[in-house]
Amino acid sequence: MLIEVNAIRFALLCAVWMVALIQIVAGEHTVALSNIGVVIFVVFGLLTLPKMRRDSLIILVLLGFVAWLLLDHMPTTGEWFEAGRSVLIFAGLLPTMTLVRATAETMPSVHKTQRALAALPPEASSGGLQMAGHIFGGIINTGAFAMLSAALPPNSDVRRRQMAAEAALRGMVSSCVWSPFFVAFAIGQAFVPVDQSWIAIALGLVTAILFALVTVPLFSQRFSLAQLRMSISCLQPVGLRLLIVLVAVIATALIFDLTALSTVVIVMPCLVVIQFVRHRANIRLIVKNTHQAMTNIGDDIVIITVAMIVGFFATQTNVLQMLVASVYVGVIPGWFALIATPSLMMMASVVGVHPVITSTALLAIFSRGGADVQPALLMQSHLIGWGAGTMASIASLSVITCASLYNVTSRDLVLGSNLPTAFCYAAGGGAILALVNMIL
User: Fold this and answer.
1) Strands 371-372 and 332-333
2) Pairwise CA distance, residues 343 & 334, whole Å
3) What is the pTM of this model?
4) How distant, in Å, are the alpha carbons of 10, 46, 191, 334, 344 from that of 398?
5) Are 119 and 306 in contact (CB under 8 A)?
6) What's residue 64's pLDDT?
7) Domain boundaries in the chain?
8) Which tens digit of pLDDT belongs to each residue from 336-345?
9) Over the stretch 325-376, which tens digit does the pLDDT of each residue have?
10) How far apart are CA 11 and CA 201, in angstroms?
11) What is the DSSP letter of 74?
C-alpha cells in the first residue's frame, strides 16, 4: 500500500513540475492549466501529510498560526487559486535541484574533486571541506553533503567527523548569499525588485569572501596560505563547469527578464539534457536516483509552498503594517531592519522556528517602503539570516542531512562551534550592511 501511495505521489509531483515549466514559458496564457496544477498539488500535499516528520508538522502548525494572525478575512476560492498559481513554481524547484544533484553525482570531474579532498592532510581538510561545501552548495545545495561525506576516510574518528561536518555545513549554508539556486533567493525576490535582487547577489560575493577569510583560518589547524591553495586546488576539476552553470542562469535571467527561480527551473534541466547526450550510459542511474530522492522531498516542498502562500496573503493585507505601526510610527530606520532581519531569523531558528517563517514576516514588514533601507541590502540581510539560521537550527534540513551523512548527532552539530559562528555571522553581517546603508 505504501509503495502505491509513493508511486502516486511521485506521478503527481512530476505533473506539477511539468505545469510549473509550462507556466514559466507561457505565462498568463495558462491560467486554466495552472489551476489544474494547483489542484494536483493540493492532492499531493494531502497524501504527503501522513508521512511528514514531526518537526515538519510543527512548522506547518506555526505557519497556520502566522496565517491566522495575518489574514483579515477568509480568502475566497479565487484568491486561493491566485495564491496557488503564484507559488506553484516552488513545487518545480526542488525536483529540478534533485535532478541536478543526481546528475552531478555521476560526473567524472566531481569524482576527481572528491578524491582530491580525501587526499588532503588532516590539518588542511577543514578549510578544504568548507570551500568545497561552499562551491558545491551554491549549485546543488544539500546535495553537497552527499558528495563531500564520501571524501571522508571511512576510519575517521568522532572528532574528525564532527569537524568535517561543521566545515561542510558552514560552507554550504553560507553560499546562499550569492547563489540564485536557493529557495531563500526566490523568497526574497517576492518582496524585492528583480534588478535589486541581482545587485544583492553581487554583494553576496563580498559577504562570502569576508566570511571565508574569517572562518577558514579560525577553524583550520595551523592555517597557512599553502593550505588554502591546496584546498582550492581540489576544486579545479569542477570550476569551469560551475562557472558555465552560473553564467547560463544569470544570462538567461537578464536576457528574458525572468526571476532567478524561473530561470533555474528552465535552464538546469536543459543543461542536464546536454549531459545526457554526452554520457548516455548514465541516464538510467540519474533517473533512478532522481526518482528515489523525489520520494523524500515532500516535507520540504509542502513547507516551502505553504510558507509562500502565507507570504502572498501577508502582502495583500495591512495587518503587519498595522501591527508595526502600533509599536513604531513612521518609516522604520534602515539600520534596525538590516540588523534585526538576520539576527531574528537566526535566533528564532535556534528554538526551531524555520527561517522561512521569520523571513516572510520580516520582509513583508520592511520591504516596499516599510523601512528606510536599500532593497538590495535588505535582500542580502535576508540571505545572511537564512544561512545563519539554517546553520544553527536542529530543525534545518541542512543540519539533519549533514548530521546523517557524517554520522554525528544533529544536536552536537548545532551546539558545537557553528552556533557562535552563526550568531556572529548574523549580527556582524547585519551591522556591516547597516553601515553601508547609512553611507548610501
Assistant:
1) parallel
2) 14
3) 0.75
4) 23, 25, 24, 30, 19
5) no
6) 82
7) 2-439
8) 999 999 999 9
9) 555 556 788 899 999 999 999 998 887 677 877 887 888 888 877 788 999 9
10) 35
11) P
